[in-house]
Amino acid sequence: MIGSVTIAVVGSGYVGLVAAVCFAEIGHNVICVDNDQRKVDALKGGDSLIHEEHLPELLNRYRNDRVTFTTDLGAATAAADAVFIAVGTPQSETGDADLSYVEAVACEIARHLDSYKVIVEKSTVPVYTNEWVRRTVERNGGNSTMFDVVSNPEFLREGTAVEDFLHPDRIVVGADTPRAAAVLQAIYKPLTDGSYYTSPNAIAGRLNQGDPSVLLLTSTKSAEIIKHASNAFLAMKISFINAVANLCEAADANVEQVAKGIGLDSRIGPKFLRPGIGYGGSCFPKDVAAFRNVADSLGVDFSLLTEVEKINAEQKRRFLRKVRAALWTLRGKRLGVLGLAFKGETDDVRESPAIDLIEMLIAEGCTICAYDPAGMDRSRVEMPETSSLTYAADAYAAADNADAILILTDWSEFSKLDLPRLKTLLRYPILLDGRNLYDPDEVAAKGLTYVSVGRPAAHPARA
Ligand code: UDX
Asked: For residue 127, what pLDDT is reported?
């Protein structure tokens, strides 16, 4: 197969929508399918629905042209060479991934297999899902010679999703037939042969023509495990450094120095060693739980993952205790909170440790005035304003007359606050930083008490 491939992408969430516009960006024709008519209308009109760098630009470049939007999965399947399933796999009550959306899509695809197609799992799914998709398609009348099921997990991070897609560390393709592998190799060719990086409008990033992307070909089951194992490993790295941070606090050491010291070992690497109030978001909590359940169901003891989750949950309670220790009692205290999103540079508040902490503080009797550069609309849906929670127009309004100010999300704008101004607004000059955005001595020199994670607290010199 040479040149442009016709691709259907089912699901226009973070993964689906980013994949759709990026496939168009590397030269393919894309039909993006969603069963939510309002989403489809919004996307047709150029509203990208999520806060993601480069997405509005690519959407405007290709919408209603190389990328079309529809609710009609059947017609999209009939027209496509490859159908990417990128629907949600939410966590069920038992911690397993709920695969009912994947199943529903597989049933519908089965009814429209009029020529050979590759069905691609892009959603994060447990090992053996490809077999279930295959069985489901066959049970619903799909002829086994007319399709293959491939696993092509996505490793994009929110906030840098477009760049991650076009400049990936690796592309993993789990395919059990050469025919299916060839379709995926054709789709990703502009990234693996480097031709994409020579185009004048290419989104800039890590890779270039001389150093293009690597495509790793594996079995479908291995690819499914690679996705879960990658996320679980990164979550483990974060819990590890959080546990080390707690040890540093007990020993009066500095976790930032320790993280630097371990990260310089090239076998460990410096990334994902930032301590804080724990990981959140739509992937890590769900995927760690799902991977643990996969191991359980296969009779494998992976209790290491239970510890990862335990440390993560405890990290939030620890920070709450720090707030209490700084303020003596919590009932009736007014706190300014900076950050609602689960990490900086995104508007996503799903499984946000900041939201959990706000709820815990409110339960302790605090009144919260919160600000986030992009997450307030979504947060208002999850936590409407009440007498205990208001939203502020900026960081300084959140601090106004507060007993202390808390940083709960690592937005870059929170690392450049006007500290003397904050000090004049606060009732007590106390900054509790759950993301270690400042040098403790610098904050203390500006007249504020500074409490962070895994480092000794710093206090202003007495006058
Ligand atoms: C993650 C994976 O990185 C990505 O490969 C996968 O496809 C989806 O899940 P994302 O959820 O967008 O991406 O966020 P990420 O940047 O990985 O951060 C996850 C959480 O870990 C955030 O709450 C973040 O604040 C936290 N984190 C990250 C830390 O606490 N410390 C770190 O060093 C890194």
From this structure: 92
